[in-house]
Design brief:
Blueprint: H1 4-25, E1 26-27, E2 30-31, H2 48-66, H3 76-103, H4 109-113, H5 118-141, H6 145-173, H7 175-182, H8 190-195, H9 199-202
Antiparallel strand pairs: 1-2
C-alpha cells in the first residue's frame, strides 16, 4: 500500500522546488507567473483513490503558482490561464470518475480504494481540497477592486468544479464513510467556500452549508 507520508514528502519537495525558482521570475517586484501545461492524462481510472491521487499531483504545481499571486500581479491575464489549467484537471477527473461508475459492474473495496486504504483516500481528498481552495482563497484575498468583477467569477467556477467532483466522490464512497473524517482536515479552507458563495450550490454534500 502506498505511503501517504512519502507522497506528502514528495509534494513538499515539489513546492520547495517552485519556491527556489521564484526569485528568477521576479521583475521589478512583480512575480511573472506563467501558466503550466497540466496535461491531464486520465491514465489511472481503475479506482477512486487512483484518480484523486493523480489529480493531487497534477494540480499541486499549478496551485503553488497561485499561492504566489499578490495584489501586484493579481490580474485576469495572469490568473485566468492558471485557473483554466486547474479546471482542465478537474474536468478530466470528473469524466474519469463517471466512466469508472458507468463501467464497473460489481463494486468492491478495490474499485473504491485501489491499493490505498480508506484513511489514505480521505487524506488525499483533504489534500486536494486544501490545495485548490487554499489557492483560490489566496487569489481572492489579493484581488483589487478593479479586477474583482473579472476574477471572482473565475474563482467561483473553479470552486464549483471542485465541489462537483467532491460530490461525486462522496456519492460513490458514501457520506458516512468519508465526510466525518474529511471535515477536520479542511476546516481552514471552509471559509473560502463561503466567501465564494458556492456552499449550497456545490458543497451541500459536506452538510455544513
Amino acid at each position: 500500500m502506498p505511503s501517504f507520508r512519502l507522497f506528502a514528502a514528495a509534494t513538499a519537495l515539489a513546492c520547495a522546488a517552485f519556491t527556489l525558482a521564484v526569485p528568477q521570475l521576479i521583475s521589478n517586484g512583480i512575480v511573472a507567473v506563467e501558466s503550466s501545461d497540466s496535461g491531464s492524462s486520465g491514465s489511472d481510472v481503475t479506482s477512486v483513490a487512483g484518480i484523486v491521487n493523480r489529480v493531487v499531483q497534477e494540480v499541486q504545481p499549478i496551485t503553488c503558482q497561485l499561492d504566489y499571486i499578490t495584489s501586484q500581479n493579481n490580474t485576469q491575464s495572469i490568473v485566468k490561464p492558471l485557473l483554466s489549467d486547474v479546471q482542465a484537471v478537474l474536468s478530466q477527473a470528473t469524466y474519469d470518475m463517471k466512466t469508472l461508475c458507468d463501467t464497473t459492474v460489481n463494486w468492491s473495496s478495490s474499485t473504491a480504494y485501489g491499493t490505498w486504504s480508506k484513511a489514505d483516500l480521505c487524506k488525499l481528498v483533504g489534500e486536494l481540497l486544501c490545495l485548490v481552495l487554499g489557492a483560490l482563497g489566496n487569489v481572492l484575498s489579493a484581488v483589487s477592486i478593479l479586477e474583482y468583477n473579472l476574477i471572482f467569477p473565475l474563482l467561483a467556477q473553479v470552486g464549483c468544479d471542485l465541489g462537483n467532483l467532491l460530490s461525486l466522490i462522496v456519492k460513490i464512497i458514501g457520506p458516512g464513510q468519508l465526510v466525518p473524517s474529511l471535515l477536520p482536515l479542511i476546516q481552514d479552507v471552509l471559509p473560502t467556500i463561503g466567501n465564494l458563495s458556492i456552499g449550497l450550490k456545490a458543497y451541500a454534500c459536506l452538510g455544513v452549508f
